[in-house]
Amino acid sequence: MSDLRRLFSYFGKYRRDLVFAFLLVAIETSFELFIPVMMADLVDYGVMQRDIGYMVEKGVQMGFCAILALITGLLYARFAARAAYGWSAEIREAEYRRLQTFSFADIDRFETSSLVTRLTSDATVLQNAVNGGLRPLVRSPILLILGIVLSFSLDPELALIFVVLAPVLAIILFLILRRVAPMYSLLQKAIDKLNSAVEENVRAIRTVKAFVREDYEECHFNEANSNQRNIGIETNKFAMLNMPSFQLVMYTAIIMIMWFGGERMLASDLEVGALTGILSYVMNILNSLMMISNVFMLLTRSLASAHRVAEVLDTIPSLQERADAADEIRDGSIDFSHVSFRYSGSAGEYTLSDITFRIESGMTVGILGGTGSGKTTLVQLIPRLYDASSGVVSVGGRDVREYTLEGLRRHIGIVLQKNMLFSGSIRENMRWGGPSAADDEIWAALKIAAADDFVRSFPGGLDYDLGQGGVNVSGGQKQRLSIARALLTEPKILIFDDSLSAVDTATEHRIMKGLSAIKGVTKIFIAERISSVINADMIIVLDDGRIESIGDNETLMKTSRVYREIYEAQLKGGRDATSPVHG
Asked: Which residues, including other chains, have CB under 8 Å from residue 122's CB and lie 6 or more apart?
């Protein structure tokens, strides 16, 4: 409940709409409750005494109350919708803002599918709780209290039937709610798994089709879908018991009122209008209890969703900025001092262990190593995508934790192996790097990245639409566009995470030549091909998360076993393979 109370603070500017909705539904309910009293008078004094004038008068009064109830009901619907949809929009926005502050480690705590569900399905559950629960939440207590008072004013003896039956209904509803409450959390988790199955399949659709695994993926989806269906059926099976329980008590009450009321009418001890009014009020009272049970159903489900939303909002980002954090980087120098890193405290081994080196500003550095040696992890510590578990990572002579995240990352350009382009034109994608970049600057960056030729060949040039995720360009083109985008950030440090893997050697040579002309920028290349780093000022060789050796090509050929093995496998082996065969 504390989670739900906390989320109420996000009503903000919609709080006034919520208050108006409360008032309007209270007024509407009051008008409705006067109608049975008027109806009782109409029957007892108008119909029984054949007083046409009195009947018309009461009929007009009842019609006036009904019209007022209709008008206030329509106004309520408008204000309630604004409050509910506005509230859910504010919650989604708050979740999304918090998500933007998450580090990679924070995001790793939640599955992508779960975050999507919390931003969509869980927020919608909360929205529906207000939109569908506000009306009965207000009407039910009014109907219950005034209904009891007015029914006792008409006939206390018949009203006692309600006093006997109401606790029975309350006990039944309590038992149903206690059974259903924990099942709503399971239902939302099942939706997480269903979203995960869909998201994973769509993201990896090329791999699925390449390995002809459509049937396997369909079975995986059907399993998640069936699980969500079964939990939903089981939950609703118990939740729907409140309707037959209500009908059982309601019809029992009607039968008993008609039975005892009929006997008293035959004995001339009860007027027809009073019996009609009692029936109306008892129906209202029982209906109010039914609405209260529905409110509790909505509340029970919304509590589960509120807790899931609050988990996102309450997550304190693991990367915190100091109050006196600097916003500017002096230069592109990088220092690692006895740095170790593991992705979580529960991880048994460190991904990186005791890493120490220094890169001078403006140097070109290569990082080599086998798969799983920690190359990508190492460079992710530089822009503080993760924090080192121990040791110090410094940029520009200062600990990276002494900079603002925005300031640090603004001066570091990263080109990933799996690059992400966005829907829109090439120009719009390039301006992710330089928001105010002119076309001449964009073309200059594209030229360095060896992307200008194919961009000019596209219809519209810079206005060419890349499609969602850059589906309209090849992998190599996507890498070159990503390099150009990073250059437009005008960084002091450029990191290339195996980002030349999809281009041919001639294009790679052209790109490396263009990059070498950029002075004063520290360039770090993670590469699988030794040709990409052979001319670097410094090469760092990693082996199983540790530095195996550091030096230039000539030094490493003498001192590094790992480097020699890579060199001989790629370069010497390549020359042997292309030499003529003598026979």
From this structure: 188, 305, 306, 308, 309
H or E stretch covering 103: none
User: Which pTM was predicted?
Assistant: 0.67
Vertex 556: Cα angle to 552 and 560 (nearest 5)? 150
Of 563, 117, 205, nearest in space to 369 by CA: 563
DSSP 547: E
Q: Which residues of 273-295 are buried (b: 16+ CB within 10 A; e: fewer)?
A: bbbbbbbbbbbbbbbbbbbbbbb
CB neighbours of 547 closer than 8 A, spacing ≥ 6? 355, 356, 357, 540, 541
Please give the helix or strand (H or E) that residue 519 lies within, else none. none
What are the structure tokens assigned to 477, written together? 């083109």
C-alpha to C-alpha distance for 104 and 406, rounded to whole angstroms: 15
Report how far residue 385's alpha carbon sits from residue 103's, in angstroms, rounded to the nearest whole number.
Answer: 6
Partners of residue 413 on adjacent β-strands = 494
What domains are there in the chain, each with its CATH number? Answer: 2-314 (1.20.1560.10), 418-490 (3.40.50.300)
CB atoms within 10 A of CB 513: 11
HEC sequence for 394-446:
EECCEEHHHECHHHHHHCEEEECCCCCCCCCEHHHHHCCCCCCCCHHHHHHHH
- Residue 1: the pLDDT is 65
Q: CA triplet 328, 332, 335: central angle to 5 degrees?
A: 105
* Confidence (pLDDT) at 572: 62
Q: Distance between CA atoms of 104 and 102, rounded to whole angstroms? A: 7
Phi first, then psi: what are they for 548, rounded to 5°? Answer: -85, -40
- Tokens of residue 332, six digits: 């592109």
CA distance 489 to 487: 5
Concatenated DSSP letters for 519-569? Answer: -S-EEEEE-SSGGGTTT-SEEEEEETTEEEEEE-HHHHHHH-HHHHHHHII
Q: Give the pLDDT of residue 573.
A: 53
State residue 229 phi and psi, 5-degree precision. Answer: -65, -45
Q: What is the pLDDT of residue 345?
A: 66
Q: 419 — phi, psi (to 5°)?
A: -85, 150
Q: At 120, which amino acid appears?
A: T
351 three-state secondary structure: coil
Amino acid present at 318: S
pLDDT at 524: 93
Where do the DSSP E strands lie in 332-411?
334-341, 352-359, 364-369, 390-395, 398-399
């603004």: which residue's tokens?
410
Length of the chain: 583
Quote the pLDDT of residue 582. Answer: 33
d(CA 565, CA 180): 63
Dig out the tokens for 58 from the structure. Answer: 């009461």
Coil, helix or strand at residue 335 = strand
Tokens for 79, please give them: 């204000």
> 515-542 burial by CB neighbour count: b if 16+ within 10 A, else e?
beeeeebbbbbbbbbbebbbebebbbbb
> pLDDT under 50 in the chain at which residues?
575-583
Asked if residue 388 lies in contact with residue 341, where contact means CB atoms within 8 angstroms, the answer is yes
Nearest Cα to 94, choosing from 11, 196, 16, 15?
11
By the 8 A CB rule, do 571 and 531 touch?
yes
- Locate 514 and state its tokens: 């263009």
